[in-house]
Amino acid sequence: MGAEQEKERLSGELLRSRPTSPILPTVNPTSEKSEPSNTSFHPSVYVIVWITLSSSVILFNKWILDTANFHFPIVLTTWHLGFATLMTQILARTTTLLDGRKTVKMTGRVYLRAIMPIGLFFSLSLICGNLTYLYLSVAFIQMLKATTPVAVLLAGWALGVAPPNLRVLYNVSFIVIGVVLASFGEIKFVLTGFMFQVGGIIFEAIRLVLVDRLLNSAEYKMDPLVSLYYFAPVCTVFNFCVSLVFEIPKLQMADIYNVGLLTLLANAVVAFLLNVSVVFLIGRTSSLVLTLCGVLKDILLVCASIAIWGTPVSPLQFFGYSIALAGMIYYKLGADKIKVYYAEGSRAWAEYGVRHPALRKIIVFAGIIITLFVILGGLAPSVGYDTKAAIASSNQYVNSLIGDKATDVKST
Question: What is the enclosing helix (H) or strand (E) of 31?
């Protein structure tokens, strides 16, 4: 008996010593995760690149269509889309950026019933958007674009994608009020350009709703670059057909040479790189960052329009646009998220002030100076200077110098 009891005791100790569950790690499991590769940049890099490219495309298009007198916006859009079609085909065969297309169950029926209608509205929105540059300033165009979330909401209700919600409608009403005030304050208001921009916003809203409905199915999940891979060829054909009727008969090679082949190539490259940057931005930032980036980009574009083209902006426009931007942030984030982000931001700002008190004071002082500059600038009758007049006067000065030298040569 004693030997058997000793044997049972030893076997019991062995059983207790064996773990009944997997051995827990002795370190934090998060520290065992593979470190990101050295090729991955900080999210702020992607934000800066996206804002730079997005602003550059808009300013570049405005310069080509207005300042360079290339009054063929549909041809320019067709060139952008044709270049995007070529580049996406090359990237699909030489890189992994478009590998996401392999998971998309694309058939001829889906392409005809889903991709082509989306491509049609995409083309119409691009055409109307570029036509607007011939009539309105970049600053006013960006103010009108603030109504895009409202148009998307109404289009979703109209197409049955989402049920109507009066509370949501109330939340977006501030965007409409702000844009209406900005429109009344516009000094150089052109009805034709305004109607083109409204049409572009409507077509873009319908396109976004159709894309959202298509992407609701798991087999059609696409990132922006894969979407461009499918939509660009359709849009190129649509835009080319429209330009063939309205613009190509009037287009001459002198118009192209006046702008420059390298300039048009650079314009298409910047437009395509914008689509590539969107893919990286979405993958490495949050919804808050995306929303604030869009708002910051719009503000920078308004300032750039004032600085480059001397666009006059009235105080009423500043006030209305501020309301519209605040309403857009509130609509996209919601009151609860704003409170959470505000609390986190206040805590981080306080901690930063403890670590760097002098630098914090400098930042506050610089913010006050910039705010006063914007407010005082907005109280002026107009902001900016006449760029075209400055260029004309400089040309006259150069011509006068050349003329004087030619006179001196003749006299000798």
Answer: none
Q: How far apart are CA 198 and CA 190, in angstroms?
A: 12
At 187-214, the pLDDT tens digits run: 789 999 999 999 999 999 999 898 888 8
Q: How many helices (H) and strands (E) does the chain have?
A: 17, 0
Please, is 410 exposed, middle or buried when counting C-beta atoms within 10 Å of its C-beta (0-12, 13-18, 19+)? exposed
Give the tokens for residue 324.
Answer: 């519209």
Cα separation, 155 vs 120, in Å, equals 16
Q: Residues 6 or more apart from 57 whose CB is under 8 A from it?
A: 267, 270, 271, 274
pTM: 0.72
Query: Alpha helix (H) ranges present in 356-386?
Result: 357-379
CB–CB of 360/353 below 8 Å?
yes
- ∠ Cα 291 355 340 (to 5°): 30
Report the distance separating Cα 108 and Cα 238, nearest Å: 18
Task: Please state, in angstroms and rounded to a whole number, the distance separating the CA atoms of residues 118 and 115.
Answer: 5
Q: Strand ranges (DSSP E) for 68-121? A: none
